[in-house]
Write a structure and sequence with these properties.
It is a single chain. By secondary structure, the chain is of the alpha/beta class. The strands form three sheets. The chain has a six-stranded parallel beta sheet, sandwiched between helices. A six-stranded mixed beta sheet has the order 10-9-11-14-13-12. The protein contains nine helices and 14 strands. The protein folds into two domains: 141 residues, 3-Layer(aba) Sandwich (Rossmann fold); 186 residues, Dihydrodipicolinate Reductase, domain 2, CATH 3.30.360.10.
Length: 339
């Protein structure tokens, strides 16, 4: 069984990672098509040892294409996703546009892979926000064991989550500071080099940013609407990998030792937790890795059943491209079986 796959937004950070992961995980493709905007026609991307020239999304006929992995932004998804699905091609969308649509499943395969079956309503499956995805992988096995009542999460998110221009801005600002040139910011509202910015996405009426709101509502849709979530999302001067400080309050007792034991057996998780210098994972070490890493598990003495821990994952992988490909793997295995 093999499938024709289109990658929409193939020239972007996530699109390129989708192509890499499709090849690395030996996804059963009969053909891979790279699609981008009209200005990127002819741009070259790689799929393993093969170089692919980008075609224009506007002109592409999706008839006969089985899966479209989309990572071109919410406005592009809003314009094209329904049309692509109408052509019989299942859309796996990385933007936020369809995440809270009740007829579109929002999926982290390790958490709610069974919900992929709901794709038949619209022919679209949504990929969650990058910061939500890695948190869900960590919370699911703990929730099953002791029932999470409340989650307090503070994120430390890399600039790659804002795209290529943001990565270039961090680099150029860092260089400017070292050579005593003027520091200019265009992508972010304030200097990102050697700084932290507690502002990701737009502000909402209640004072939360939309990134913080996403973590709240997406947790409810993916895992359990009864979990009370509060988030503070911060952009930090790191190129790759998001980190999260997570505090959980449970209905039942769960010790740090038991929590680590559960997480060591959980899919998609790697535990690196030694109470010694360097006995934890940092963003640099998680970059390029498929796993979501857990460190610094400890008891929260301020509540009856509480735990604190540190969670790190490559945001372009589990937070985006890897999760999308994993969704496609389950989709093909359980739903799109072909001769």
């Amino acid at each position: 069984m093999s499938y024709k796959v289109a990658v929409v937004g193939a020239t972007g950070n996530v699109g390129r990672e989708m192509l890499n992961i499709l090849h690395e995980r030996q996804f059963p493709v009969s053909e891979v098509v790279a699609l981008a905007s009209r200005r990127s026609i002819g741009s070259e991307v790689t799929f393993g040892d093969t170089t692919i020239k980008c075609k224009c999304l506007d002109d592409y006929d999706f008839t006969g294409t089985d899966i479209a992995l989309m990572s071109a932004g919410g406005s592009i998804s809003a314009k094209f996703a329904d049309k692509i699905a109408a052509a019989g091609c299942v859309v796996i969308d990385n933007s936020s546009h369809f995440r809270m649509d009740p007829d579109v499943p929002l999926i982290v395969p390790e958490v709610n892979g069974d919900a992929i079956a709901g794709y038949t309503k619209k022919g679209i499956i949504a990929n969650p926000n990058c910061s939500t995805a890695q948190m869900m992988v960590a919370l699911k096995p703990l929730h099953d064991a002791a029932v999470i009542k409340r989650c307090v999460v503070s994120t430390y998110q890399s600039v790659s989550g804002s795209g290529k221009a943001a990565m270039e801005e961090l680099w150029s600002q860092t260089r400017a500071i070292f050579v005593n040139d003027p520091v200019e910011n265009e992508v972010y509202t304030k200097q990102i080099a050697f700084n932290c910015i507690p502002h990701i996405d737009v502000f909402m009426d209640n004072g939360d940013t939309k990134e913080e709101w996403k973590m709240v509502v997406e947790t409810g849709k993916i895992l359990d609407p009864d979990i009370r979530v509060t988030a503070t999302c911060v952009r930090v001067p790191v190129f790759l990998s998001h980190s999260e400080s997570i505090n959980l309050e449970f209905e039942r007792e769960i010790t740090p030792e038991r929590a680590l034991e559960i997480l060591r057996e959980a899919p998609g998780i790697m535990v690196v937790d030694k109470r010694e210098d360097g006995g934890y994972i940092t963003p640099v070490e998680a970059a390029g890795e498929f796993a979501t890493y857990i460190s610094r598990m400890r008891k929260d003495e301020t509540v009856k059943h509480g735990l604190n821990f540190w969670c790190v994952s490559d945001n372009l992988l589990k937070g985006a491209a890897l999760n999308a490909v994993q969704i496609a793997e389950v989709l093909c295995r359980d739903h799109l079986k072909k001769g």
